[in-house]
Design a protein that fits this description.
mainly beta, Immunoglobulin-like, 6-stranded mixed β-sheet, 5-stranded antiparallel β-sheet, about 50% strand, elongated
Length: about 475
Amino acid sequence: MKKIFTFLVFLSICLFTTRLYAESDTLTCNFFMYSKASVGCDVYVVYQGNAPSSATYNWNWDGGIVIAGSGPGYYYIRWDTAGYKTVTLQVIYQGQTCNSSRTIHIVPPPLVYNVTGGGSYPYNGSGVSIGLSGSQPNYNYYLYLNHGSSSVANITGTGNPLNFGLFTATGTYTCKAKVDSSSSTCLINMSDSAIVTVTGYVPEQYICMVTFDTATQRNMIVWNKITGPHLSYFNIYKQTFQENVFTKVGQVPYNNFSTFVDTTTDPIIMAQKYEMSVTDSTGNESIKCPYHKTVHLEVSPGVQGFNLIWNPYEGFTFYTYRIHRKLNTGAWQLIDSIASDQISYTDPYTTSGLTTYYIEVIRYLPCNPTLKSGSYESIVSNSMTSAPLGISEINASKVLVYPNPVQQKVNIILPTSGTISSHLELYTVDGRKFLEKTINQSKAELDLSTLPSGIYFLKVISKEGIGTVKFVKE
């Protein structure tokens, strides 16, 4: 019963709507048509009034040929002669009649010009130019890649040759043209095509790690060598005094061992960022890989023990820092492992001598540079040596070292007199002993002209105790 009632209501609404239209609506005859088209073009036309499809539609195409369509449309109409054409429409429905008309300007089709340009460009280059040998005012020109449905560039004609610009996407470029304010179906193919190719593509080379090289006391960049045709050498870049601005600091021939030691930087001073790329035999260079940033360690004596602070390593994900320590020239010891989100540590260990530390990061996948029998599994920071505070030993202020900084010879005055014997030991910041000497007087002179520039510790051992003084060799 409910369904019958719903149907009767729906039928009543339909009848009421039809009767309302017939009695009160004004019939409209407007229709859509472009204002301009070229000879031989299929022009889209469609009725936009309020009459139903069952109404009578009388079209006059002013010499146009119906390619497709009937009734209210849509239609595709073609004119084979140029000039202004007036399309009229009469609509008759339920005793009402309306009329409308629109004019379209039929112009000659676009002249056919040749696509110009194209060619090959080097990888990472700016691309190649593509143009058209000529153009007409009031015509629009569209450039397509690989016969796609959407244009990649378009220009309005000037009466002169056109330049669409530089293009890097590889493939075949073609061009079509149409008169302005006309349908996209009026596009006319231009002649020829331009082909864009890339030469010298060079794959990206990634850094595997940057570590402190204990042999040279410098930063060492390590990578797993990529393979590719005609690769010539690897380029190493280091960040300048401007953030994320890099300058080239060296290159390594492709057939060499895939590591590079940066002799331009002292790792004791600060952390460094590095990028790298690879160049082929024709001079094409790959893009630079994401940077790696070294771990820079600082150590200072506390009231009891030593305070360590460092910056995070950047370049890959890891989970643990390992902290290593040694006393004087003794063996290294792993004293602790901490989470990778920590960058400071206090070692309560106290000794009367020099204590040296370094930080280690274990890489989840080892680096395997070519020509090396083994692999690099861990990254280490610079090592730093410090002497403790508050211990019972010679007052360091009584040990005079001058000049400081020193260039060639350093003078040492000890808090002793007469023939009291003192033992001198010279250490680098990473705990390596450079020289030792026993003297039997309160004054001594050491020739340091052959020492590399850097920071050194002078350890004095005498009957009165042990003292340590830091100085700089220029």
